[in-house]
Amino acid sequence: MRPKTLDYLALVLIYVIVISLPYFSSLPSTDKLMISVIFQTLFGMGVLSFYGPRFNRPVWRYSVLPLSLFAFLNIPVVCLQGIDIEANYGIFIQNCFLTLGTVFAEELLFRQLFSEYFLGNKRWVKLILSSSFFALPHALSILSSPSLGGAMNVGYTFALGLVLWIVFDSGLGYIGSFLLHWLFNLLMGEVFSYLGGVNSGLPFYLINLLGGFLIVAYGLVVYFKPKKIRP
């Protein structure tokens, strides 16, 4: 294993510790979220300061744009479940901004910095490793409160990691993966919860499993499709 690979794995471990510590405390859930996101933002700023990842100019490939549908899967779900707005508007706006800190740190670590450390590996290796590293912190975070929903969320996070890496590696780069990740967190999490959506029931499982499978399958076809060589 190359030294720089060990360095990257050390960063992933540090990130896991950073986001996990607040959740093993006895603080209220809202405070845990706030502290975790602050830690993640500081972590992202540290990564940017010490490593200075280079952001390439996005190259717009329309073939990967359908992958953005991954962020909209819960919109038909909440329509079928019925809209029942009960959430606090202030908390909703706060969480919309908080998710920016999380996305900032995770895209730096699991896409941008990963691409610099694993530059020479095969495409399928990078796809699997990037998605696995991305799912790892989410897998370990459920140790504080094990549940079936938490376990399913790990699988969903891995699928999201596949989509985000395909978008990143397609030419859209950090900007593309950052925007899709933030849109996903915003619509699938904050907006869905604010409109009274529930992470259970036949509409939720059917739309997310079937829709997610089709979108990931499409992404894999686009990602591994041989490029035409011009004469």
3D structure, described in words:
This protein has 231 residues and is mostly helical. 72% of the residues lie in helices and 0% in strands. The chain contains 7 helices and no strands. The protein is globular.
Strand fraction band?
under 5%
Mean pLDDT: 86
Span of the ends, CA to CA: 40 Å
Main sheet properties: none
Order of helices and strands: HHHHHHH
Summarize the structure.
The protein is 72% helix and 0% strand. It is built from seven helices and no strands.
Helix and strand topology:
Layout: H1 3-20, H2 29-51, H3 74-81, H4 89-117, H5 123-141, H6 148-194, H7 202-224
Helix pairs in contact: 1-2, 1-4, 1-5, 2-4, 3-7, 4-5, 4-6, 5-6, 6-7
Features:
7 helices; globular; mainly alpha
